[in-house]
Design brief:
By secondary structure, the protein is α/β, with parallel strands linked by helices. 29% of the residues lie in helices and 21% in strands. The strands form 3 sheets. Strands 1-2-3-4-5-6-7 form a 7-stranded mixed sheet, with helices on one face. A 5-stranded mixed sheet has the order 8-9-10-11-12, with no helix packed on it. Strand 3 and strand 4 form a beta hairpin. Helix 4 packs antiparallel against helix 5 and helix 6 crosses helix 7. The two termini are 32 Å apart.
Length: 305
């Protein structure tokens, strides 16, 4: 079970998930956000807000009402996509609380993704909050807390380079890295599949009982869900390698060959996913790119696992 199928929050109405933890759902449902962004409020008197969400006045008002007379000490971001971070600054202005995150939107990119970005390869419209800038940058392993709670920041790049998860006792706030309703989007140059898999391994070493994701219901079987995500990615990689055995391909022709069960309107997003795998395979010396590593390169198999 990846989450509570009876879990159905209403936008703007706080839901108690555990002692000292409430969720306020943002009113931004979409195919990419499920029923909307989960904003978490941690603590009873001294609070942290995790992922304020999109810049929406109604959601801001709902958060302020839920906070009430308590003291908001921290505004925490798992990452800076437009469905998670834009409301951070208005909330900070209303409450005086500082904004904490790993860094601005380009922070945490691997060297190969920095190179692709420098070569002019841009994201595919995943909604980067390009103006995002935290007040305080959090390092991997850094702890913060207030009153009766404490969190540990875990740098988990993959979905985007500046992605953080937050460990809270035997639970983890996983942002968009692990969700129960869908696999995480990994789209270069902001998403990095090599980093994604390493971050999955990092989370696997933490024996959490619950994941609180950025979208969807709490995940009550973290180990099983992580295993599914990693197996899913390895299965897609195997399809790409198999397709390259007999002939070279571009990301586009691989997409057409592999994604036979989705509408062609979804091929652009699928192509970016295929390219994420090809970059990973290229970095591991399993495929070569001609004339060089790029979105329109021709890829051929040169190594085997």
């Amino acid at each position: 079970m990846t989450g509570n199928t009876g879990f159905a929050p209403v936008p703007g109405v706080p839901v108690s998930l555990a002692h000292g933890l409430r969720l306020v759902l943002a009113p931004n449902p979409s195919p990419m956000t499920h029923w909307g962004t989960n904003t978490y409020i941690l603590g009873t008197q001294e609070l942290a807000v995790i992922d304020p969400g999109p810049d929406n006045p109604q959601h801001l008002e709902a958060l302020l009402q839920t906070i009430g007379t308590a003291k908001l000490r921290y505004i925490l971001l798992t990452h800076s996509h437009l469905d998670h971070s834009p409301l951070a600054r208005p909330l900070a202005s209303e409450t005086g609380a500082p904004i904490f995150a790993y860094g601005p939107s380009a922070a945490g990119r691997s060297k190969i993704m920095q190179q692709l970005a420098a070569d002019g390869f841009a994201g595919g419209g995943e909604g980067i909050d390009k103006s995002f800038q935290p007040d305080v940058m959090l390092a991997d392993g850094e702890r913060l807390g207030a009153g009766d709670w404490e969190l540990e920041a875990l740098h988990t790049p993959g979905h985007i380079g500046n992605h953080l998860c937050f460990r809270w006792g035997d639970a983890v706030f996983t942002g968009d890295h692990v969700m129960g309703w869908a696999s995480s989007l990994v789209s270069p140059p902001d998403g990095d599949l090599t980093d994604f898999m390493l971050s999955c391994e990092k989370l696997r070493k933490i024996q959490a009982m619950t994941y609180y994701p950025g979208h969807g219901a709490p995940v009550t079987d973290p180990a099983q869900r992580l295993e599914w995500l990693m197996t899913h990615r390895k299965g897609r990689e195997a399809q790409i390698r198999d397709a390259l055995i007999d002939q070279a391909h571009t990301a586009e022709t691989l997409t057409i060959a592999i994604y036979t069960d989705i509408p062609t309107s979804m091929h652009p997003a699928a192509k970016r996913n295929v390219f994420a795998h090809l970059v990973d395979l290229h970095q591991r010396g399993i495929v070569a790119a001609s004339p060089h590593l790029a979105f329109d390169a021709v890829f051929r198999l040169v190594g085997r696992l």
